[in-house]
Amino acid sequence: MSTQSMKKYNRLMEKAEELFFTMGYKRVTIDEIAAAAGISKMTIYKYFPSKEDLLIEVLIQISERALKPITEKIDEIVSPAEKIEYIFSLGTNAARTIPVVLYRDILETPRVVEKLQDYKKNHMLSIWNKILQEGIDQGEIRPFDIEFMSHFLSDMAVHLDWTKLLSNSFYLNEEKGIGWLVENIYDFFKYGLLGKKNDKE
User: What is the CATH number of the domain that holds 42?
Assistant: First the structure.
């Protein structure tokens, strides 16, 4: 790709993300994205067959930015328990950045959900395997089936039935946002019903 083409592509991705985040997916047209990026609609179609494919790439790039700190810093954290806390905190913070309107549109677009799920699981499975094995070896985590739990933790974020949760007005709290929901799910997973957050044993 030439320097000029790369500039156009980068501008397209920047403006598409900006519009998807402010207006959602369904309300934005290819014409509006092209106008915002200062390129023709045909140029967009040179890069992506459809608006759906453009959204998928935008979301994958966002996921890559969210996963980058994990791959770069996870080895610097000594305690497996702290590594798990770090991953959960990043997941919560990432969820807070995505507006409810975009979440709704994503969940109503099955192909987008499937592509995003596959991407996230492929990148997180090995990370969970490594952390859980370290935790058991160091006695910070009780012994269990690591393969099962690695898949479960990877699936928890990507295969949870968000459609049902977000169709419920209690969970889809416009003021608290998606971060509130994700934070409470992670909190329950980490501490259960009877666990104590301050219990260091």
Answer: 1.10.10.60
